[in-house]
Give the backbone structure.
Amino acid sequence: MNKMLNKTILFLLVITVFSCKTESNSSAKTSNDTPFDAKVDSLMNLMTLQEKIGQTVMYSGSGTITGPTVNTNFRTYIKEANVGAMLNVYSTKATRDLQKLAVEETRLGIPLLFGYDVIHGFKTIFPINLGLAASWDLEDIEKGSRIAAEEASAVGIHWTFAPMVDISRDPRWGRISEGAGEDVYLGSEIAKAYVKGFQGDDLSKTNTILACAKHFVGYGAAQAGRDYHTVNMGMDELRNVYLPPFEAAVDAGVETFMTAFNELNGVPATANKFLYRDILRDEWGFNGFVVTDYTAINELVEHGFAENEKHATELAIKAGIDQDMMSSANRLYLEELVNEGKVDEALINDACRRILLAKFKLGLFDDPYRYIDEQREKDVIYKPEFLEAARKSAAMCSVLLKNNDKTLPLDKNQTIALIGPLVKDKENILGNWGAAGDRTGKAISVYEGVQEYLADSKVAFAKGCEIEGDDTSGFTKAINAAKTADKVVMVMGEDYDMSGEAASRTNIKLPGKQTDLIKAIRKAVPKKQIVLVLMNGRPLDLSEEDTLADAILETWFPGTSGGYGVADVLFGAYNPSAKLPVTFPRTLGQVPIYYNMKNTGRPIPDHDPHEDYKSHYLDAPNTPLYPFGHGLSYTTFEYSDVELSSETIGFSDTLTATATITNTGDYDGYEIAQLYVHDKVGSITRPVKELKGFQKIFLKKGESKTVSFKLTAKDLEFYNLEEFRVEPGEFEIAIKGTSDFDFEHSFTLE
Ligand code: GLC
């Protein structure tokens, strides 16, 4: 009885001393002072070294398996005050159970943080992130992550391990599905939108959660597109391409960072002082905390960078890593390292302080159970407006890659043959990182979406084949279905676990016998229009399909309401507006291939692509099948009257570039106008073009609007191996609806 009384008194002391509501502030580039500093100091003065180390430890529950199986007695560790956070625990019951252990069975009752991979939705799953990037709609991306935070926070989740802001130019890499594609400007803008959506404007509200910029850094540049593989890159590429989206997340106030599994130029990210102390803390002024990726501290031994796990523990904390996810390294070795004088206790104090600060910002010391709300869980999960928002996102993310002879939109008076392994799919449609999404029936299939538009009598279904495997026994039924219908719609792609973590492919074609099925249908009905609808987590090699299908719609994995959204596009209720955030190669042999490459000293001349001694292939063109920024509409848009406010600008001037865009077709629709520049000469070579702005505008058929972009010298800054600088000279400039164009205008910066 006395023990319980002591605990209660101590807990009340801790809570009384600290519980006062103050506006939380983000970890953006502001001063280090926060309204919670005194409270954190007071609490830390009560803590033992072991209790402080406990805050730097994170374990995984069994809700979702997101890494190698490691058996841990996390309940025991929590009661010993050896755990500061848990991941993969995501129900009100489970979070309440473990929070009670921490709050009521430890000396100081410090609440746990609960983290989870809420990457593109919690229960209501939105299109995969590469798909969301294709919408180029920052408002919609922010809204989707806001909805994800609403649902996740209702079950006790305080922290999402998102956004993943890794730039990637390699479709072999399975995690290209989780990011915003190949471009640094688009990726940076999208990173900010996610952070704002997840964190909102006040972390003390129970519907806002900590965001986490990951994986710092360079993970998307893994050699050969093989996950976890070695990364080597020059400082120009690191600072001009891979770092900026992370800095953008810091500017947006992201509260946490996560380390990357890879090494960078010989030093594993999880022990990389240059990244975490020099850049993240000193250059960018980041005040939040850094968590490792799953068992990443222990992996320093496999990297050949640490002698053993104890040495790895020392290297990680010294590099500026605050919390250990699933290695047990901090729990097992940090106190010993301090006692041996190998690690300064001040480093542990810094880490503990940052983690406690996050808990204060969330209001967990006012009420450790405030995010655990059974009624809110009932009220919030799968709200109709959330499902509707996911439907709209699915439509906005679908990229119309090809549409010969106005094959699309479909006519409700015609019959269609719906063929392919993903027509009735309700599982893969969520894509990878589907969090707590339901793969057993909640999601709307394309078949169900089509049923919203066509009576069953107008639809002939045949699966035709599986996603994988050599079985072609279903071809005959599919061919017969095609023969009976006016048009053929084939829904094909990858299995959802063919992309995501540890899911790299050396072959980026459609798996199995899917392409053969398209060929068989094409042969059987040579005059019929074929629409290919794709669900996939990476750019695919569609060179064959491009010769077989009359229309191709890239839907990525469109999520819980995906079938509705895709059908809205197929039948014209939503005129497709999405643009590719990543290049689709003609063949894997071209990879890496991306729009903003360098010119080389021997570029292919336009007039003679086969001229000798030029930078080209013997067996394929240099151009991609579908370029970055490409995406068709059911209408057409014409760009004209590009005007510059001046032919010359000074370093303190602002250039205004305008263009008139006219909807010259038969449908109202959105167009994503893109601003590109080309720095013709630099103290290091510069990309042949760079995206520097975009605007999504709505135009009724026949309507014209003027889009206007402002450009300053700062927008033209780059890192030239020694410093960030803006250099005078001639810049080409263009406003287009794709990255596939030749420049026609230029200005001079002097
Ligand atoms: C995984 C992923 C990381 C994720 C973490 C927790 O290994 O690399 O993105 O957030 O573990 O699930």
Summary: The CA atoms of residues 108 and 315 lie 29 Å apart.
